[in-house]
Amino acid sequence: MATSSSGRAADARDRDSEGRARSARPRDGLGRPLPYGEEGVPRQPEGVARTPRETVAEAQALLDEGKPFHAHEVFEDAWKSGPEEERELWRGLAQLAVGLTHSARGNVTGGARLLRRGAGAVEAWASGPGRWRPYGMDLAGVVAWARELAGVVERGDEVVDAAARAPRLQGM
Length: 172
Fold this sequence. Notes:
By secondary structure, the protein is mainly α. Helices cover 48% and strands 0% of the residues.
């Protein structure tokens, strides 16, 4: 086993030459790591520049397939590469996708918290004039969806099926 400069044994996790995680393990549709050698769901490529409408369409398709973890990666690309004035919108949508991911995984606290945090970010961003339907998205409907689902998750009324509970970004 290799040792680090501090003399500690280096762990066998996937790391690049600078020690950052590579996340090379296969993952399921909810982003959970699978054992090496198993076939997982293809990962979303990182750092892809998409138009806002392409982002919405691709994220919606992934949400509809029950892959909110992967939709979050699409929103994250928009958040990191889009115009500064839109970053809070895309970040909020990424939080909503992660909230749905956690909810579907059974993480009540994390799921509800992220759904509410994302709803607050989207609502705050959308409060400006003419911002309720950017790129055809129904932000008021998305915010209502997130808050309603957060309540369902907290009450434990149902096991959350990510595909069945996916939001309709362009109309609820």
